[in-house]
Fold these 4 entries.
Entry 1:
Amino acid sequence: MNGTRFTRCAANLAAAIGIAFLLPGLTGAAVAGAAEIKVMSTVAMSATLDELKPTFETSTGNKVTIVYSVIADLRKRIQEGETADVMILSRAALDELQGQGKVASGSIVNLASSYVAIAVRAGAAKPDIGSVDALTGTLLAAKSIVYADPAKGGASGVYFAKVLDRLGIADQMKSKTTLVPGAQAAEVVAKGEAEMGVAQASEIVPIAGAQLVGPLPGDLNNVTVFAAGIGPASKDPAAARALIHYVTGPVGARVLKSKGMDPG
């Protein structure tokens, strides 16, 4: 009887010792299996990605590092040799980069679209921008306006500068215009430092203190499709695809909508 007890105790002890040696190996394997995903993304997607990043990291164990900039700057850097596991720019920019071998062939997926829009401070009366004539009158009557510096390459700023030229009021607007380097136009409006702002809708909706008025009217309306592609030198393309799938999935779609973007 005592011999049987001793045998059982010895077996239990051996099993415990075995597990003690095994657990560090299992933990190390789990850590070793976690991917580090570098993302280069347009600032227009920053509010969405900043909200999705913690939940994606928690659910997968992967670590995501995001570099934000305007599309023109990112495109230039990628063309000059910088790369990432996931690149999020306009669809047009990614198609161009794919043709240059800077994005893995067949990896581009549309994420969402957003339009160039007008913003005013929360609580302020929304100005009339319902027609081209109404927009022109509203812009001329505005005491101050802010948008992305076209020279820095921000898509909304580049486009809006062309709109002002088309309306024939570029010179009249110069003295009351503030230019920002990126996606800060809505923040400037929220602080009361400009009466009106122009930016992607996705750069306006998340900002407390700013309200979206609407898109530019008629054929002045401009929609940008944002997409994601995988870097050709990605060390873990499966992890990169998993992140893209997360952004395009049900959770990502809800967040995109909440930030003023149309998924897909």
Note: The domain at 114-223 is CATH 3.40.190.10 (D-Maltodextrin-Binding Protein; domain 2).
Entry 2:
Amino acid sequence: MKNLGITLVLSTLILIACGPNHEELAKNKFNKAEQLFSQKKFNDAKLEIDSIEYLYPNQIEYITRGNDLLRKISIEEQNQNLVFLDSMLQVKEMELVPLMKNFTESSDYGTKKILIHKRQKPENSYGRIYLRAHLNLEGDFYISSRYTGTERIHHDQIKVYFNKNSVLSEEVPEDGVNNRHLEDGENHWEVISYKNGKDNGVIDFIANNANQSLKVQFRGKKYYYIVMEKFDKEAIRDGYEISFVLKEIKHIKEEIKTVKAELKRLNA
């Protein structure tokens, strides 16, 4: 019985000795990782590399070679990201071209460059009562209501409507900034800026119904009514869409910058 036990132990040791050792097992995993890398199966390759250090922590050579392969995988992944981002940037820049046909870039109306609809330039709109689109190169967008007349109406809110459909902005109290009053002899101007969501859905309403005959009610101590011009509706609709595309372009450019910085680090 004792001899049988010794025989079993010896047999087990012989089997272990005849099987692959840790170095061979680590090498096999590394070779498999390299094969997966060549097939561009990067996630599977990374799993194989991670398992080398976990299962065979003493196999420094293959752990080191695995880390080198991980760096190569990261470089390939970042290069793929860069190709994708470059293609997305081209798509978005092409989207912008038809939208920009009626807009012009200008620095004549403040300290920052803006995009302004050709039919809404101040020099073309003197004395008009209308809603204006405001857009900068970063994609920030809002609208303002602009009233002019020989007497004030003290408006601080607008309602846009057609048929039984309507939307009402928030009230913007007179503060000399977002609700301004200007006076020149007998003429009065009231300019209300609906920033940071103060339009309360007016922009969406106009953009989605630009083909409708939209009316605007200027609401204050007195009321005033207009029918929106076609080009004013288009200025708001297109400016609003441009704002989204500009923000997407800005985000893509930031991502490209991040990827290039990571590639520089990996290739250092």
Note: DSSP finds six helices and ten strands in the chain.
Entry 3:
Amino acid sequence: MTMENSGKFKYRLLVFFSAVILAAGLSLFFYKGGFINADGLGNNNQTPVTDGFVDELYTSIAGEVPDTDKVTNIKTALAAGEITGIEAAHRIVFSSEGFYANREDSQYIESMKAAAGYDLTSVSGFPTFLFMGRLDDVTREDVFEWFVGTHGFEALCDRYEVTKGEYGDGRFYDPDAPMIALTFDDGPSEYTDTILDCLEQYGQRATFFVVGYNAVEYPDQIARADYIGCEIGNHTQGHANLTTLDRMGVAGQLASVDKLVELYTGHPTTVIRPPYGAFNDTTRAVANVPLVLWNIDTQDWETRDTQSTIDNILNDVYDGDIVLMHDIYESTAEAMLTVIPELTNQGYQLVTMSEIAETRGGMEPGGAYYRFRPLDEI
């Protein structure tokens, strides 16, 4: 072979191997996600790997993955990096499905262990809790905090390429962002679940001031509201005008509700709304928690009209407002299907009374509160 022919051969060999390498690279690009995934589907149809995190957790906690908008919202937010693994897990564990599947403490504990793949050693090196089936001295939130600190949860996040994030005491909200307190009186009722469904779907919360005669009829609604992070307030046993009662009478009206709520949730009410907004020095003296009034009255009790309730909120609401409604009316529950997503879209956080107070100067037992403006506006 001549020198010239040898050079041409080497050149052709170089071109051939370059073409092979380029073809292999392009094939890998297309296969891995440029245009075609491993299933031969276009990239537009590719399921985010993070969806597996949601599916596995729901299956461990509730036994199945619900076919609901709520699940879709969690998956979308997780894939977009808008929420962390811990935030997604909290929404799943404290969902209504999680509540109904784990009514007993023993069920809840076993679900959490299964969700961690029974790898219960602590990432931080602290001793692992040994739960024996009852939560006498710790809450379900305490168990969740332990769960997200296990190697099992960390492995779950790694397996589905999820950013774990940091635990935030069970409530993930921005204290500097605008917030509103939606409040509901006189329930629970057959319509309360509709409101809870909507709050849960959008990751929001509210405060429910319950009366004793309805609390007896709807214990599951109180337990569920508390479980998904809403606050339970006291609206007296018989919707009594507290200004007409002596100390014993006021104490009796409040104590009856507290006993019921503690039976259903494990703790008494944390705030009081005196019926008719009526209170006096006796009421203040007897109350061992704050009195919560309102600055926006939707008049839902008078109009019983869905659109009127929507308009009375959306036309006037402002950061720090306390909105008065009643969850005993179907029209109010229907209004929430518009109000809750709309306020969420406007950037409002819908929070409990204790949450809004915590960021706006706090509340004192016996004190009366009508609204909570940002501290720099007070």
Note: The first helix runs from residue 3 to 34.
Entry 4:
Amino acid sequence: MINKRVVFKSWLVSVSTQLLGHFRARPPCIPPSPARILILKPCCLGDVLLTTPLVHALRHHYPRAHLTYGVGQWSRPMVATSRDLDAIWPIPERWTLGTLMASVRALRQRRFDMVFVPDRSPLLSGLVALAGIPVRIGLDSAGRGWGYTHPVPVVTSVIHEADLYSMLGHPVGVMQIPRQLHFYVPAEAEAEATTLRASLSTGKAAGPFVVLHPGGGANPGMTLHRKRWLPERWAIIADRLIQEHAAIVVLVGASSDQAAIDAVSAQMHMDAAVWVKQWHWPVLGGLIKSADLFLGHDTGMMHLACAVGTPTIAIFGPSDPQMYGPYSPIGTFAWSPTPSSPCFENGTAPVNCPCADQCMRNVGADTVWAKIEKMLERRNWLV
């Protein structure tokens, strides 16, 4: 069911911002050695990780510049340990007139020379324009980039979001950015993850260490539990991993994933380890980095698995894996779309699923198992 109010609001924003775009001044020259650079992406976990190829490339392109990342509290852990950044600037995840004007003042005080905005929000476009940052490079979707001096048009063809974000490097001459996400696990977090893995593996067979995340689909802007695969199929996969490969299977999740993990555990016949809590993200990154395989949905944790270099299989339904799938040479996805797929587009989804979750039911356990077998074969884990 199409929300006419949302459609009208989107149309109104597009028309208004396109009109504002007509008053855009001639773009200034790109400075060869900017002293202070800002990257601005408020939310969410996976989206912030998808900006890390751009961040890494900017660090190498401008080795002497001071790089600051503006991000909301929810997504801050994805870049908090980054070696490519010099500072993190906390920004609101929801805006009011008061927080907007306070942010404008804060940006003016920091005197940035250049800003990159890998986001479609017209509000962020206006924010950096009001802040008077001389060179403003950002995505221009249907005229929403009216405040940028160097707007980068959002292409109409289907490309991965990380590739789209990386196109922001083009105006400064960064043309070829390696397709690799980045998440840095500090040594102390890696040591803690090693201890955690040992405790989760106690009494288990010495097979492959496999992390499953059957939850997700929730962030400050949206809750979309229809991204989750069926619990009984997760249970089939977990049981087969233990029975056929003597795998050490760990079900991970946040407290908001407890019900999903309980539903999987209740239908399993074998014994899996469960780790559900509000983790310290670097420790979780270290645990996943040590795994032989990660399985999940279209979530921030799936992108984290790619960022730490773990073989990844993602199960997709309402969103398009061509845009949001594993961004890794050792990542793949399972997707059996319906005629109405994808229904998650431009960061929004209809209130009622147009296919009544058929897109997730279409993904069979045998399909996912075949992908697991290929992954484990490459890792030389065959029992």
Note: The chain has two domains: 14-172, 187-378.
